Amino acid sequence: MNDFFPPALLFAGTPFEINRVMLVRFIATAAIVLVFWLGTRRMKIVPGRFQSLVEMGLDFVRVNIAEDLLGKRDGRRFLPLLTTIFFMVLFFNLTSVIPGLNIAGTSVIGVPLVLAVVSYCTFIYAGIRHNARGFFRNALFPPGVPWPLYIIVTPIEIVSTFVVRPITLLLRLLMNMIVGHLLLVLFFTGTQWLLFEAPAMYKALSVGTLVFGFAFTLMEILVAVLQAYIFALLTAVYIQLAVADDH
Predict the structure, then answer these.
(1) Domain boundaries of the chain, sorted by first residue
(2) What pTM was estimated for this model as a whole?
């Protein structure tokens, strides 16, 4: 657990303190900027391999998340935000399996909290911008419910719509990356202990823990991609609910 609370490297005791997790986030951010700069600096009508790869990633967010849920008009409006969320979560997650970094930038609460707040504020902004009165009325007093039941339904809607949504976004991302890190640490430190410190009769077990370690590394990559997709997708779903005439 100490991996999530590393000692300060620079500016200890100040609001600008930099530790290992912050350094990993800086590296991931630099990687995002570098990838998109290299992929878009010399755009060609017939793209090369790297430009094609970057365009495939951008098209994936545009087609499968933004336009699929929000339509072309609203999809274009919120595409920059959804693209930023997807690739930020993706790159920050993948640092968990990069040798030398070995921890996700999203495994400490700061980044997931900021992203959840941004997603939540966008949901509220989209609803108010679309139809402020109708947004809150439909959210708190769902159409078709007998009016006496609003005594029960409205408090539930307040909690589920305006409290639970940002919390679930935060916890889903954070806990997946924490658990993934702990599993990898468990298997690889177990392999080291079995191989170098355990009695001879147990050393053969290190092969099994090593295989499981590599298997869970592949699973961690899959989880990193899925969490980026789910976070961006749920943000788009919430925006779609906010701009719908009835939700």
Answers:
(1) 2-243
(2) 0.91
